[in-house]
Every structure is written in C-alpha cells, then in structure tokens.
Specification:
By secondary structure, this protein is an all-beta fold. The protein has a single domain (3-131), classed as Jelly Rolls, CATH 2.60.120.200. Helices cover 0% and strands 61% of the residues. Strands 1, 3, 4, 5, 6, 7 and 11 form a seven-stranded antiparallel sheet that branches. It is globular, with a radius of gyration of 13 Å. The two termini are 24 Å apart. The relative contact order is 0.37. It comes from Peucedramus taeniatus (Olive warbler). One of its GO terms (molecular function) is lactose binding. Residues 2-132 form the Galectin domain. Pfam families: Gal-bind_lectin (PF00337).
C-alpha cells in the first residue's frame, strides 16, 4: 500500500500526475481514483502477469462492494524496474488516462462531480504526485 490521498478536490478540467518506479519483479500495481475507498470512479490496474492477464491494463469502477465491467487496454508501455508517469485528466463524463505514447478514456460510471480520493497499491513506488 502506497500513499493515500483524501480531499483532493479534482474537478473536470483538472489533472493528477503520478510519477514513480516499478518494482524489478513487478506482477501488477493499482491506482484508485474516486470519492473514497468504497466509491472508485477509476480502478487502474496494469498487470505484468497477474489474474491470468499478461501485459494488460485492466480498468474498472467500484460502488461499495460491486465492481463494474472490466475494460482492457492492450497497449502496455510499462517495464519492470522502469519508471512511469501517468496522468489522469478528469472530464465531465470520463477520465482520460495519459500514458507514455498512448491515451484512453474511461467513463465516469458513478457520475462523480469531484474526485477526492487516490491510492496506490502493489509493485509501484510513488516518487511524486502533482495536480493542476
């Protein structure tokens, strides 16, 4: 478990940038963005080799104990032992995920007007967090 941020106050038009290091023997890591730990607008889970997925990014949303439908991205710009910079841009109806050389959007299924919560878990060490 990495840092947990609350009261972020990210609104449409704002973005959160996370920089860090990926463990040399990484299996997967997670970044959650939402209202709190029970209402996740975006569960971002790059998997090197976990849960039957290899080099796949799995995204989802969670409302209390209920997960939504998984969304898979096959572009995988992460390397074990490398560094990563990921920017989450909050829009009215979705979140744009900016990765090195690739971006995609994930719908704001919970209709969150503000993203107050962020955490990281797994084989990733946060070096810096910034938002604008």
């Amino acid at each position: 478990q990495g840092p947990v941020c609350t009261n972020l106050g990210l609104k449409p038009g704002q973005r959160l940038t996370v920089k860090g290091k990926i463990a040399p023997n990484a299996k997967s890591f997670v970044m959650n963005l939402g209202k709190d730990a029970t209402l996740l607008g975006l569960h971002f889970n790059p998997r090197f080799d976990a849960h039957g997925d290899v080099n796949t990014i799995v995204c989802n949303s969670k409302k209390v104990e209920e997960w939504g439908a998984e969304h898979r991205e096959t572009v995988f710009p992460f390397q074990k032992g490398g560094t990563a910079e990921i920017t989450f841009g909050v829009n009215q109806n979705d979140v744009t995920v900016h990765l090195p050389g690739h971006q995609f959007t994930f719908p704001n299924r919970l209709n969150l007007s503000v993203f107050d919560y962020f955490d990281t878990q797994g084989d990733f060490t946060v070096q810096s967090l910034s938002w604008e």
